Amino acid sequence: MAGKKGRSKKSFDRVLSMYKYKNFVAKLSNYPILKQIGWRHMDMDNTILTYVPIYEDMEVPAGTAAPVSIIEHFIREASDHLILSRCPCRSENDCQDFDPYFGCTFLGPAVRNVDPEVGRLVSMEEALEHLHQATEMGLISCLGKFKFDAVMLGVQRDHHNLMTVCHCCPCCCLSTSIPYASRETRDTVVKIPGVTVEVDMEKCNGCGACVKTCTFKQIEVVDKKAVIGEECKGCGRCAMVCKQDAISIRIEDPSYIDTCVERIAAKVNL
Predict the structure, then answer these.
(1) Residues 181 and 201 in one domain
(2) Residue 155 domain boundaries
(3) Are residues 82 and 211 located together in one domain of the fold?
(4) Whole-prediction pTM
(5) How far is 78 from 136, CA to CA, in rounded Å?
């Protein structure tokens, strides 16, 4: 056990510096030969991530829980919970707006072999509180399966037993590199089923605040009105920053939580 945890610390330290070059690594996915060299550990066949919007005025079907309950479900189901000692994205990119030592959460039996210097094992209740703190800070959480995280933590052989819950800022997160990646890679981030992002053209004044906050570069101002792109991931950041209340997030499918949980659960054994 001690040997496994030692390998975990070495792996974490080795991979950490890559986060400074995340845009470059993302660009490699556009070139088949370079992809095999620099992107092989990402293993897109074993990756599925979904952003969970926290916009408080989101419209959901009557009697249906908010999207954050999807993450809460997996935290409650997981056998083990771990919170990283720091966020690789924020700490390596000198984040000025959010705490670089507010770490990601990982779930599942694989976390038992993570070195204590890399992250600490916590209770289910602590993991839930950490999630709620992230929401209060304005961080947008995403969850799912990302094999590269297992490589970072030194538990790649146990990657099927590891779920990622990242608490992402709009300035430093790995997701800011997605626009530079191939379409295949971009499509591994899947929007919650039934989520729609709409712009009220009468309220929109084309200020561009939504354009600046969209980490996926899926909003542009056309004729002084915001237009949402087809690869929108439904994270809800744009609605959070719109001072005109011109952007709305709506979920029309009452079964969206079950659908999302089923899809993600098929990839990870907690």
Answers:
(1) no
(2) 2-192+253-265
(3) no
(4) 0.88
(5) 23
**Pair 102, 221 in one domain:** no
| Single-letter residue type at 82 | L
pLDDT digits (tens, 9 = 90+) for 216-260: 999 999 999 999 999 999 999 999 999 999 999 999 888 999 999
Query: Which structure tokens are listed for 89?
Result: 């994205």
Beta strands in the chain (DSSP E): 47-52, 81-84, 105-107, 119-122, 140-146, 163-168, 195-199, 219-222, 225-228, 247-251
| Kind and range of the H or E run holding 265 | helix 256-265
Question: Token digits for 64?
Answer: 């249906």
Helix 68-77, helix 256-265: angle, nearest 10 = 40
pLDDT score for 37? 52
Q: Which residue intervals of 17-104 are DSSP H helices?
A: 22-28, 32-38, 68-77, 88-92
The SS3 call for residue 194 is coil
Distance in angstroms (rounded) separating the CA atoms of residues 74 and 212: 32
Total length of the chain: 270
